[in-house]
Batch of 2 targets.
Target 1
Amino acid sequence: MTVDGIIELRSDTFTQPTDAMWEALDRPPLGDDISQEDPTVARLERRAASLLGKEDALLAISGTMANQVAVMTLTERGDEVIVSDRSHIYNLEVAALAALCQVQARPVHSADGQFDSAQISSLIRSPGIQAPKTGLICLENTHDLNQGIPVTLENMRRVGELSRDAGVPIYLDGARIFNAAAALEVDAGELTQDASLVQVCLTKGLGAPLGSVLAGTQETIGRARHMKQRLGGGMRQAGIIAAPGLVALGDERIAALREDHRRARVLRAALREVEGLDVYPRATLTNIVKIQLDAALDAGRFHSGLKRRGIRIKPVGGAAFRMVTHHQVSDEDISVTVCAIREVLTTCG
Ligand SMILES: Cc1ncc(COP(=O)(O)O)c(C=O)c1O
């Protein structure tokens, strides 16, 4: 279903609320959330905690805020934090790790989207008067926002084991954790098992207009509430956000992610037959398709040609583009997009 005739493939964050979300906004029970008296928020937090296999949860306004609240909760000033060099928390949060959390990021490369536990292990510092303390390992699943690679349960467990051995906690940015769980056919709670805190965004494939939920033990979430408040993230009648969020975390929306994945697979298979571009081999295990144009082709003309035809895709550096399926992309939209790409490519030589 296109909106205003536009096929929006830049991100799953560009979606409008579903009908059920609009209906949920019709006078949900509200209260003061800073005092933890909003019943709709409380329901959302219970639902998220249960889905993520944790005791407790808190609603934050965005994924970025949930990430920063988590790092502030789990580290001390001057700690070193191991992060993937492809992660959102390292690349796209305006250096908040340094500016707000006052920690030092130690990037680790994860070549095929999985985490190299041997490399992570080698980066954990021995205690010493001069060395920073390794305070946290940040993981992301799905990983790499331009590829959406599900990190396998085996890989998550391997890092979990080393985190326990080294006594360094894990934070999991699970902005799209339900996409990972659907692709891997595992329970989201299994993927989050070794994380002291995990967040999920309600606004990505799940389609809600606002909100992310951070989950962990009751004690850790209690501390995280203070950090959220410190950041100005305390809200009043936040049930307005939680009501559509509950629809986003409903069985129906979570199951629908598989349809997004199927459409991404169809798109990927069709584009593989198109001359002039490469489709990233692992890129569509979830809802994200990354393509790269041949060097001889004019990437600017390709982008603007599609835009003129009402198809929005996101340039992600060089001649690479990403396309993300979501609940407002239909089978027909995929066919129209493939035809348009074929047509536009003929003008880009
Ligand atoms: C992996 C990941 N983490 C965090 C975020 C941040 O979410 P928000 O845009 O709600 O701040 C995003 C957003 O795209 C993301 O892809």
Target 2
Amino acid sequence: MSVSDDHRLAMWLQVLKLCRLQPEEKVVVLSSESSHPFNVDAATRAVNRVSPHTVRIEIPPIPPHRPGSDRTAFLGTTPLSGNTLAVEILKRSDLIIDLVGLLHSQEQLDVLASGTRMLMVVEPPEVLARLMPSEDDKRRVMAADARLRVARSMYVTSKAGTDLILPLGQFGTLPEYGYADEPGHWDHWPSGFISTWPVERAAQGKVVIDIGDMLFPIKRYVETSPIILEVQDGYITQIDGGFEAKYLRRYLESYNDPEAYAVAHVGWGLQAQASWTALGTRDKQQSLGMDARSFYGNFLFSTGPNAEAGGRNHSACHIDIPMAGCTIMLDDEPVVIEGVVIDPEQRVDYTK
Ligand SMILES: [Fe+2]
């Protein structure tokens, strides 16, 4: 599937409208050598149509830290690190279109704290076109956010054997609905999920990553046998299973960082247009995997840092693990049952 030039421009204009971009606002389109050229072209043209106060900044890439991996494989150090000029310009803008995939860093937190809103866009145009955000996505994600914000525990189970208790309340939430419309809000097109971080050193139980669940940035389904993670006092203490368990063990060991074993953000997917099958049909190097992270009703478990939430864990190693078929309870009330979103406020209304 390809996306025509006109279609790309139209979808970018639509997303900028959702971002409430105004003609008097200052916009930076941030790109690097790794940015998708069609995204750079369409974003720049669309932004220029709305606001004359627009610059495109091309920042130098940082050397690859991991073999054959994408931006999510080494967090904390970004092309912005140490680039004080770029950071100053970004702070003075109202909206940043991040085509680099900066992800979480102190520099980004500083920019957002200045009130600048930021939209990261890394996936190729055909994924962007299929996963266009909508106001209804925001409504449902923010309904989930309202539930999660006040919850003091998340309890996750599955037929595969997951039985995980996650005390909550130390950190805020991370709602992602696909566009950046509020001052200081960071978002990612495409997305559509809610997450938070458990209280440090408090998660307890077992996570069974079943056949068909996925590992990112390794970008593969578990195919041979489930991976069993024992979690004690907020950290993975044991990894059992077959080939994929061995791979995960080796992958985590390669960072030589005890903090890589911490439980990081946890939440659930709310994007009904995202596809569980996408990882099997997409070129893995061309895609970040947002279908997998966002698909409707998945439990998104992850490992590594919580520094973006204000926590103490700065590990560069971060693994996202979308899991199907889980039941998620908040303070003893289910929001997802066996992979089905049940909260009426979060469900997609197919009758509209
Ligand atoms: Fe993540």
